[in-house]
Amino acid sequence: MTLLEVENLHTEFPMDGYTIPALNDVSLSVSSGEIVGVVGESGSGKTVLAESVMGIVEEPGRVTDGEIRFKGESLLSKTESELQSVRGSAISLVFQDPMNSLNPTITVGEQVAETIRLHQDVGESVSLGAEFKRKLFGATKHSESWKQSIEMLETVGIPEPASRASSYPHEFSGGMRQRALIAIALSCEPDLLIADEPTTALDVTTQAKLLDELEALAKAFDTAVMLITHDLAVVAEICEFVYVMYAGEVVERAKTERLFGQPQHPYTVGLLDSVPKLDGLTELGAIPGDVPERTDQIGGCLFAPRCPEATQECQENRPSDRNVGDGEHSAACLKRGKSQSVDMVNKHD
Amino acid sequence: MTETIGSRTAPADDQTSLVEVRNLKKHFQTTSGPLGRLFDGSDVVRAVDGVDLTITEGETVAVVGESGCGKSTLAKTLLKLHQPTHGSITYRGTDLTDLSHSEMRPFRREMQIIFQDPLGSLNPSKTVGQIVATPMDVHGIGADSTIRQERAKELLKRVGLSVEHFDRTPEQLSGGQQQRVGIARALSVEPDFLVADEPTSALDVSVQAKVLKRLDTLTNEHGAAMLFIAHDLSTVRHIADRVAVMYLGRIVECAAVDELFDSPQHPYTKALLSAVPRIDPDDRAERIRLHGQVPSPMNPPAGCRFHTRCQELIPPTEWKGTQEQFRMVFTFQQKVLSGIIDVEAVRTELQEDSKEVHPSALVDTVVNRLFPGNLADLPSDAHNTLYSAAQYLVDGDVDAAKGLVREEIRTPCEQNVPDVESQSSCFVRCHRYD
Fold first, then answer.
1. pLDDT digits (tens, 9 = 90+) for B43-73
2. What's the CA gap between A78 and A86, in Å, rounded?
């Protein structure tokens, strides 16, 4: 079942005298239980995409066109209070920086319990007096929400959750904080979890554990995950379907295996070449040039200034999605697609 | 479509050592005041705790380890940005250890550093051109400022920036461009030794590749030696000649880059390597999970410092079960010693259904919480130890429980420090190779 549908989304940031199209005609869909990767460099618009879906794009940016449907309902036409009930309970967001997203003055267990009380009916009074008491003393250790909080912390792999629940965020390591955030995000059993660079700040050993756990949790809870990252290797490890973003546009989409086996868009090929290899045989490649600052000034393909295959045609015409191979694989490149012969030399075999 | 990186240069044939570090230690006092220091000797962070390392002319040595292993402290101590607590640093035959700031000055020109945080290490009020020209000014390179400016422009071009960046300030550049300014600044004085402290970990993968390539090409052109600090192994293969893997203040394995990747020896190296995410599913090795958390560098484990997390922990000779079983029994011991279990919390949890929790049910639960595997085929004496320890915990006698597991569960890894000839260029510090 399709859970989230983003159609032809445009999000713009008005600057001094011009407008930056942070998202330009972005379409994407996530089905329930599926792990979808969104990959791109800094400035590709992947975080703005997450913010647009959650309805938290920072001023003066705003969604100007397109549609976001969640379970068939338009999110763009919802009021702020209606959105509030979707956020957290149906769609949760995990940020990159685990320290700044946790409250340093409240125990980790209480922060998870709080989310459970807010989003689930656990039969606990939410009267002002009861809430005030909790604010002062935290959840009592016999309360239903506290018990569920401990279970949740155990699920995400916090050792000895019963005693660690009473710890404060600063007493946790980086990996445990990120787990605590995922516990908060999962505690309301969302249908969709958006994870924005969840492992970027972590050591590789911790990252490996967390990715394994994220994958297992998505299966166990049948939660769909939209994993946003700049690291293709992370995507290759756990995602089923991948969207590659460049300068606010989706330039290629395909099933993971297909994307890494037969990358079509020159940008995807370049990104793949720049991932360090462990075999010692493959040489490291890099994409020449930098991500353009003023995408509004480029008439043709946004990647053309950096593309080794670009021709005059590419400088003048903006490519749209073209089918490359099976029905689910498409790339926005004038040099690819049905009219062209797809005899791309595969460097990765 | 891509520019490719030059092949690695082999270490110089003559193997002249450029930098020699012997038994280097850097300890930090935590801020508990003089009284705290008097009464409690353990408030010392042993960030670097006995490192031997030799870097030859023109060689690139990578130091790899997780956060908190002391790799950045090692880099800074090596350049005398920290005063070493113990040991010696020799640069081209000169002992730098006790040199004063002014005595260090002539060496500063030859030894440069690139920092992890590109923006934080560039002066925000200066232009890129000024930033690159300043070290030449300080060290008296180039006859006048016009020549220095010209040289700065030339350097910026060589790191892949254009002349239009010359008059910009650092915050007007992207992260990758800022880091390339850092590289240009370090190279402006033509150093013979360059320390790069995680120069790419704040950057996107695509930008990382570009910076790595520039760094590799430029150090090769200059014939400069480099100490390259990294938190994971993925970037290292492309740039290093030799790799030193660091854990809790010490180097646990040191080997030529191909050897380290093709046949890692130390269990920690194996774990680090298995954790690197891979694009190709066929490349994926069985992921090795490390046990527990990194211990505090204030109180590192006795014997082999890695033994608390090691999957290849050695059982004592009299052990009757399997190695896996011993590893699990040891995990039980570690959990008891860390005091991680809260017996009262377990009791509260169990109280849900029945009014009073039966003591034996509580002991069972405690054992199950602390022992990660199947208790059934465990050797009987180990079985008894686990239950006796759990009984002590339920009775509230935590010290007796700790004493018991410490006495009954012993590993050779904890009793002796793995000793190796660590002054040689390649070694493994692990009892498995004794």
1. 788 999 999 999 999 999 999 998 889 999 9
2. 10
pTM: 0.85
- Tokens standing for residue A130: 């009861």
Tens-digit pLDDT profile for residues A170-220: 888 778 888 899 889 888 789 999 999 888 877 888 888 888 888 988 888
**CA dihedral of residues A123, A129, A133, A138 (deg, nearest 10):** 30
Of A42, A288, A348, the CB nearest to B175: A42
> pLDDT digits over A132-147, tens only?
666 665 556 667 888 8
Which tokens sit at B371? 């022992």
Which of B182, B181, B187 has its CA nearest to residue B219?
B187
pLDDT computed for residue A340 by the predictor = 40
Beta bridge partners of B63: B229, B244
The predicted pLDDT at position B295 comes to 85
The residues, ordered by sequence, that sit 6+ positions from A324 with a Cβ below 8 Å of its Cβ are: A264, A330, A331, A336, A337, A338, A342
DSSP run (H or E) holding A241: strand A241-246
Q: Do the Cβ atoms of B2 and A286 come within 8 Å? A: yes
Asked if A207 reaches chain B (Cβ–Cβ under 8 Å), the answer is yes
pLDDT tens digit string along B338-363? 887 878 878 877 776 656 778 888 89
What number of CA atoms fall less than 13 Å from residue B294's CA on the CB side?
Answer: 22
Q: Which helix (H) or strand (E) holds B87?
A: strand B86-91
Contact of A94 with A210, CB cutoff 8 Å: no
Bridge partners (DSSP) listed for residue B61: B227, B242
Tally of CB atoms within 10 A around B138: 12
Residue of A172, A71, A48 whose CA lies nearest to A112: A172
pLDDT at B1 over 50: no
Q: Do B66 and A205 touch (CB under 8 A)?
A: yes
Could you read off the pLDDT of B407-427 as tens digits, one per residue? 999 999 999 898 877 667 789
Rounded Cα distance, A191 and B375, in Å: 38
Peptide bond into A60 cis (omega under 30): yes
Q: How far apart are CA A231 and CA B1, in angstroms?
A: 20
Q: For residues B297 and B311, what is the distance between their CA atoms, to the nearest angstrom? A: 20
Interface contact flag, A274 B206, Cβ < 8 Å: yes
Q: Which residue has the tokens 């239980």?
A: A33
Q: Is residue B348 within 8 Å of residue A141, measured between CB atoms?
A: yes
Q: What is the pLDDT of residue A4?
A: 96
More confident residue, A346 or B21: B21
The SS3 call for residue B91 is strand
What's the pLDDT score for residue A131? 61
Mutate: best of A203, A255, A279, partner B, most B CBs <10 A:
A203
What's phi and psi for B34, nearest 5 deg?
-65, -35
Q: How far apart (Å, rounded) are the C-alpha atoms in residues A138 and A113?
A: 9
Signed CA dihedral, B367, B370, B372, B378: sign only: negative
